Amino acid sequence: MVKQRPSLLDVLARGWPLLAAVALVLTWGRTLPTWLVAVVALVLAGAVLSAVHHAEVVAHRVGEPFGSLVLAVAVTIIEVALIVTLMISGGENSSSLARDTVFAAAMITMNGILGLSLLIGARRYHLVNFNAEGTGGALATVTALATLSLVVPTFTTSHPGPQFSGPQLVFAACASLFLYGSFVLTQTVRHRDFFLPVTASGELAEQDHAEPPTPKATWTSVGLLLVALVAVVGLAKVESPAIEAGVRAAGYPLSFVGVVIAMLVLLPESLAAARAAGRNRIQISINLALGSAMASIGLTIPAIAIASIWLDGPLLLGLGATQTVLLALTIVVSVLTVVPGRATRLQATVHLILFGAFIFLSIKP
């Protein structure tokens, strides 16, 4: 039996995370010239594509919905580590960094990734189908997490400003962990079928029958996926001074830097969701979108609650009026999208317009 030679894609996918890790080590904490910023951006793009490739390898081995969960949780854990690191190091916007990043992640996933996936699927297949039961449960969890963690602090009275008191923060952290843990148990054990792709008649769609990767190849991809994700987040941090300088030069609010970094960090999920939509696996795209929003809130708030023991200064979690309205509108639209269990280009357009409104109002508040 002739051993098949690895393709160019496989070679690049294996080598690029290591290249990105080396680039991260060489550039971390340094001021970069313009030409090197461009090189780092190229390496960052390659790391994102590599992360998507290895996530799909792992997903093929473990099956859905575990594959979507692997990518969402891996990216979020590293994102949380980055947020905590930036907050501990201090800075001009460190008090509101967690709120701005989590809110940006929620709007990017619930409107940007979801809208793009629905548009890709609807353009190709006219009408896309998904499981309303599983998607509805995920949306309910995201809604509860976002409201308890980002809206309620604006209206509490125990502490001045849009922030929790100590006991309130502990309660929000415990509630977030419990909600997220309950969802993962439902998604992977109790009602796994609710999160698998379905046909127009509501029956489970046929799964891919290609030969799954070997255990060795799977574990290799797991390791390279983690390296690629660390590199993506780290290089996004390396690029942040150049991004901040560009934002300042354009006259945009400094908080928009967090939006740009969140978009960079969420690129692996965005590409993976778009590719799944192109294969008429909209349920997988939705799992990635809502799962990422859920993990971002459900893991960040407990981590910030623990980190607040060492953090100096206020921890602002409550959203402003404009942000609250955008979140409420996003939830209402998402409910109307989910209830029928199918969607067209119209629903995709509505979500993308909301995403555009979020970007525009982040630039021109």
Automatic annotation (TrEMBL):
It is a multi-pass membrane protein. GO terms for cellular component: plasma membrane. The chain crosses the membrane at residues 12-29, 35-54, 66-89, 101-122, 134-156, 168-186, 217-238, 250-267, 288-311, 317-339, 346-363. InterPro entries: Alkaline_pH_Ca-Antiporter, NaCa_Exmemb. Pfam families: Na_Ca_ex (PF01699). Keywords: Membrane, Transmembrane, Transmembrane helix. One of its GO terms (molecular function) is potassium:proton antiporter activity. It is found in: Membrane. Residues 34-188, 221-363 form the Sodium/calcium exchanger membrane region domain. This is Ionic transporter y4hA.
